Amino acid sequence: MADRPISHGLGFGNGSLIENPDGTVEYRQTGKFLPAFKVRLRDVVGFSVRKATRDDRKRLKASSLQEVLTVQGSGTTLAEVAINYGTAQKIEDWFRAHQDFGPALQPQSQAHLAPTSVADELMKLAQLRDAGVLTPEEFEAQKAKLLR
Description:
The protein is an alpha+beta fold. The protein contains five helices and seven strands.
């Protein structure tokens, strides 16, 4: 990882993810200075998305046009944020494509699964690039890691 933060844009109106050298990732909404959430990448194990409730509108200042993304850790909620529709999938795709996503769980939870091929991983990366989650430069860097 670099010695300074790396910004990963998620596309127009979707904000960006800031990858910090200390292993944390911040999500910043478009036009906001402070992060909506900051989590340690290796602690994230999953995500859930739901429609904003009346409570969410008060607690998270969600609008009726937003949904709520919950970032899950092992047995706990790491973060909850009200976001625009479609942004949750971009955030989840970015995390899942990252090489440090969920390494603590892989030996137990994925041991019974057939290993994925390099071709499958390249296809996933290409989909993330085409969706605008990865820049062409980020795609090439991840591709180079897979082909080593």
